[in-house]
Design brief:
Layout (H helix, E strand, L loop, with lengths): L2 E14 L2 E7 L12 E5 L10 E9 L4 E7 L3 H7 L6 E8 L21
Antiparallel strand pairs: 1-2, 1-6, 2-5, 3-4, 3-6, 4-5
Length: 117
């Protein structure tokens, strides 16, 4: 079950060309997200950018209640997200998506996907 919440952007860091690491403080970091899930992030203060951006969850730190997202700038919306100042409040829905589990005895995995999450 996904939840909507106000999450604080803690940091933004350029990690590759046009690709940023966003760390957000979120109550939902304490919830169990599974591999393959993502969050929907609304671009703040931009009513012209109506649709939320789906962004894969890169990692979750339950101890510090943070979630790391990796975002590639592809449009005006992702550009605005990657250039926000720390302490900006984001409207986030998630985790969403079906995700997947691996059996403990799994030795080899082949995963195909799109995006950069």
């Amino acid at each position: 079950m996904s939840r909507q919440e106000q999450a604080m952007l803690l940091s933004t860091k350029l990690v590759a060309q046009d690709t940023y690491e966003l760390v957000i403080e979120t109550k939902n970091a304490k919830r169990d997200a599974i591999p393959g899930q993502f969050v929907h992030v609304k671009v703040p203060n931009r009513p012209d950018l109506l649709l939320r951006r789906p962004i894969s969850i890169n990692s979750i730190d339950t101890k510090n209640s943070t979630m790391t997202l990796i975002v590639q700038v592809k449009s005006e919306g992702t550009s605005v997200l990657c250039n926000l100042a720390p302490h900006t409040i984001l409207d986030v829905v998630g985790p969403v998506g079906r995700g997947f589990y691996l059996r403990k005895d799994t030795k080899r995995v082949a995963i195909l996907g799109g995006g950069i999450g």
